[in-house]
Amino acid sequence: MSDEKENYIYVPASADLQEKHKKLVWSGMLFVSLGLIFMAGSYLYMRMQGVYDKEETDINQILPFLLIFIPAYGVSILKQGLNDKKALLQAGTRGIMGLLLDKDKIAGAVSLLEGPTSIPLKVKKAPVFTIDWPKIDNFIVEPVRPSGKSQSPPFYKITIKGTDGGIKSSYFILRQYFKGREQEILDYVATRLPAENIILNDELLTKRE
Q: What's CA 134's distance to the chain center, in Å?
């Protein structure tokens, strides 16, 4: 590794990062609205059928209320979207609406993280994450991969020394918000980590036309 290196680089995330939270908010509102409509419609239908006029208890009487899981799910998505948006704005007040790499660490907006290691940070509503260079084992450029019935987006996978390097112990930073600037990130990483610890499993993303 070269001793001649810049003090730091800052690579802002593209504006698409904010769209991620807007989609969550709109999806949450959609589930809440549809859920309430289904509940109200089901209740009115049962009432027209005279279900609530019966003296004995009928499973159909509580059916409309069982549909509450739909708006409840929508509320959880809406809450996640609003919390993520707030965290991104807070990261912005710290001047980190993207990735900051300096001689000590990698830091970035928590909104860029996915996977199990991001959950405790999001629960604590931390706007920024940091990973010290001495803790990093490998910096891996991962492509889109199959994940169940869908696909996982492209990530920077950062494995930590002393762990198994698996999903639960690694950091996954979304790459799509740094199209056209990935080479800058890798150039700086190369000043902090040995070449054998930088693994390219995918071509770098180019800027959109």
A: 25
